[in-house]
Amino acid sequence: MLFKIVTKEGFRSLVDQLLASNEVIGPRRVGVRRNGKPEHQFLPIERFEDMDLDYEKTAFSAKTYFLPFRETLSRTRFKNGDWQQEISYRVQPRALVGLHACDINALLKLDKVMLRGPFPSPYYLSRRKNTFVVGIDHDPCETGFCASLGEDTVTHGFDLFLTDLGDRYFVSIDSDRGFRVLHSVPVRDITEDDRRAYQEVRRRIASGFKVHLRFENLPTLLDIEFESPVWKKWGDKCLSCGACAMVCPTCYCYGVYERICQDFKECTKVKQLYSCNLIDFAVVAGGHNFRPTRHTRLKYRYYHQHRGFVEAYDEPKCVGCNRCGDACLAGINPPDVIRDLQAEEAS
Question: pTM surpassing 0.85?
Fold first, then answer.
């Protein structure tokens, strides 16, 4: 990986260049959250000033731009006495500016499923390859626990990654296109003073986390506590609304349905994200529901995050952003659930 220094004005010029030939997405302030803090979302920007790079976390993750909530997979029309199918992938160049390390790590987890699985998704691949990713370091958010999972730093999966050193940015370069774009503005090599300043910022960030969790041996703990009353305790609170999956940067479960015109001359196949907490998620043909109760659905969501994904990909699916806890109207937080399970085992 290469490292360079760019001034704040130089980075502004870089964003202006991206705006000239790309759709640019960045963190924008959109209101106030329930806790009184500013609320941000990743939204299209038209100028550099539209962004607020000094944000805590967005309510929704950048997953929205790679796995949209709803998308058309194909459209079939009856024309000239025959059926004709239309399939299109997004190819418009896009830049995502201001992603935090945990959100980039979330994309890397989605890559394992959507790009390196037995059935790669061409829709996801098109968006991923055509998106220029610029990450940025940030002070720890109040409810996040990404450091406990090792997701507070990132070493790949981006084009450029910035660390704010006051009057300049320390830039990590992870791709050829990142190198080319960065060198379209004035940059310089890093000095010993830059290294020391960078290390000091990283130490400050690492020491600022308020939520600390132990994740060692959690997959085994989940198996041991499979019938724990902890699941019933938290499951009884669950509203089965699916909000946790919608804001989660790594949840990717979906359903596919078809819309057929009444004249039977056109059919559209649509993919829509879904949630394992919804009551009909595990309903099969014949009407049987393998997870009819709220606590079993809640339990299996945690199993997928911290047991099933570990078995398949050697790491948890969760990145510790705690968007699910922030969005949950019932007050269900992963740190509270996991601590209850650990206390149950210790008792």
Answer: yes
